[in-house]
Amino acid sequence: MFNYTADLCDIHPESIKVVDPIFKSYGLKQLFSGEIVTVKVHEDNALVKNLLNTDGNNKVLVIDGGGSLRCALVGGNLAQMAADHGWQGIIVYGCIRDSEEISKIPIGIKALNTHPLKSIKHGRGDIDIPVTFAGVTFFPKHYLYADFDGVIVAPNQLAQQ
Q1: Cα 87 to Cα 34: distance, rounded to the nearest angstrom
Q2: Helices and strands (DSSP H and E) totals, the chain
Q3: CB-hemisphere CA count at 13 Å for 76?
Q4: What does the CA dihedral 151, 135, 62, 95 come to, rounded to 10 degrees?
Q5: Are 106 and 28 in contact (CB under 8 A)?
Q6: In this structure, is residue 161 part of a structural domain?
Q7: DSSP string of 33-75, one letter each residue
Q8: pLDDT 10s digits, 68-78
Q9: What are phi and psi of 36, to 5 degrees?
């Protein structure tokens, strides 16, 4: 059973941080949660692809793309790869593309917007470091919960999905 973010905020007000409401939902799953894995990149999704090609069981990938609106960091192929590898969701501080295709893939995806241009593929960036955007610092191995009302993070698992 999924605990909604509003309920978790009421039950654990001292534990949670609420992410600024700047994201739009794109994936088929509107409710998702999991352990945070982070990657920080700039208009380069090679590391994103590498991570999504690993076991993502009960995990959420948080991509700090610097808020860039100049290209997409996730498209339909990567979203499908993530779903195939068990990832629960992806938060993109940047853009996605193939939004119609992604809307049919059983994964939760939240991003700033869409952009038709693909990113470069140089493999530059950092994995498993704290990243800060939308008023929150996302720490690897902390937990993220997302639903229709928004996104929250907590240092420990608060509920079972």
Answers
A1: 9
A2: 4, 12
A3: 8
A4: 90
A5: yes
A6: no
A7: EEEEEEEE-SSB-HHHHHHHTS--BTEEEEEE-TT--SSEEE-
A8: 999 999 999 99
A9: -80, 135
**Which amino acid is located at 160 in the chain?**
Q
11, 19, 39, 71, 104 from 47: Cα distances, Å: 36, 24, 7, 15, 24
DSSP 119-144: PB----SEESS-EEETTEEEPTTSEE
Mean pLDDT of all residues in 29-34: 96
Domain-located, residue 28: yes
The domain that contains 93 carries what CATH number? 3.50.30.40
The reply to whether 160 falls in a domain is no
Percentage of the residues of the chain whose pLDDT score is greater than 90: 96
pLDDT grade, residue 144 (50/70/90)? very high
The pTM is what?
Answer: 0.96
6-16 pLDDT, tens digit each: 999 999 999 99
Domain that holds residue 10: 5-154
Residue 142, both tokens: 């902390």
Task: Give the 3-state secondary structure of residue 80.
Answer: helix
State how many domains the chain has. 1
In-domain check, residue 159: no
